[in-house]
């Protein structure tokens, strides 16, 4: 393993933003992970573990600790069971399973990031979520490798118990359904085309910045319908698209520094040049304040902040 000192994190995040990590290392095995964690413990430094850097905003000053990138990328297919290690790109798993004639993961073709991050945050798009076909996850917990069942992972909307622990995802096991490789390939192409037409792909971005807003009571639903003409599909799920809400606030194109709300999709903030983490944080605060003051909606960030 190579421990890099003062490694710029903007090289490792989709946002292309972030100061230096005091130490940076890629791990490809459990033994290497143990070595990296022992290194951090010896130096009494905090640890940040990440995969693809798609859902991450790193402080401009960087991270005074050890950044561990999960580079375990093996995929094993046995019948309709698929085991993917934490560093496998979600899009790569979508392609591999479709090619093998296994249905259930085509939605992940447009999901940025890796399987480890997807399991941790129950990532999803196009109506699919990581939990849908997941059976169990292999975690590194308190120095030991443990297998945790889907029910014990306590999945919710962009949530799991892993987010509230020090557990590190090592791999995930999915049980998929038989499908036609030709039809699945068509699904991949359709979803990629949809992504290209509805999301900004020409600038650095961390993907969806905010979680969609969940309506928790009939009273709140009544209050919001008096202010907004809510689409029927959102009424049915009682979940308002954050991008749609930002559009209602007429904030597309709003810019602070080089951080800009995309004209293509309201829930994407793009780095239009040399944006800083502070630019993004100011824009986040601005959007949240407008949503709270004008709509009574408290938006929550989906992006992970590293300070």
Key attributes of the depicted protein:
5-stranded antiparallel sheet; 8 helices; alpha+beta; 307 residues; 21 strands
Structure description:
The chain has 307 residues and is an alpha+beta fold. The protein is 29% helix and 29% strand. It has helices at residues 30-42, 90-99, 115-121, 181-198, 218-227, 232-237, 242-248, 277-295; strands at 4-8, 20-27, 47-50, 56-58, 63-70, 75-78, 81-85, 102-103, 124-125, 128-129, 134-141, 144-149, 168-175, 177-178, 204-208, 213-214, 239-240, 255-256, 259-261, 268-271, 304-306. It has a five-stranded antiparallel beta sheet with strand order 6-7-13-11-12, covered by helices on one side. Strands 1-2-5-3 form a four-stranded mixed beta sheet, with helices on one face. β11 and β12 form a beta hairpin.
Share of residues in strands: 25-35%
Provide the helix percentage: 25-40%
Calculate Rg over CA atoms. Answer: 20 Å
Structural class: alpha+beta
Low-confidence sequence ranges: none
Tally of helical runs: 8
How would you state the average pLDDT, rounded? Answer: 96
Terminal residue distance: 25 Å
Strand order of the largest sheet: 6-7-13-11-12
What general form does the structure show? globular
Largest sheet: 5 strands, antiparallel
**Element string (H = helix, E = strand):** EEHEEEEEHEHEEEEEEHEEHHEHEEEHE
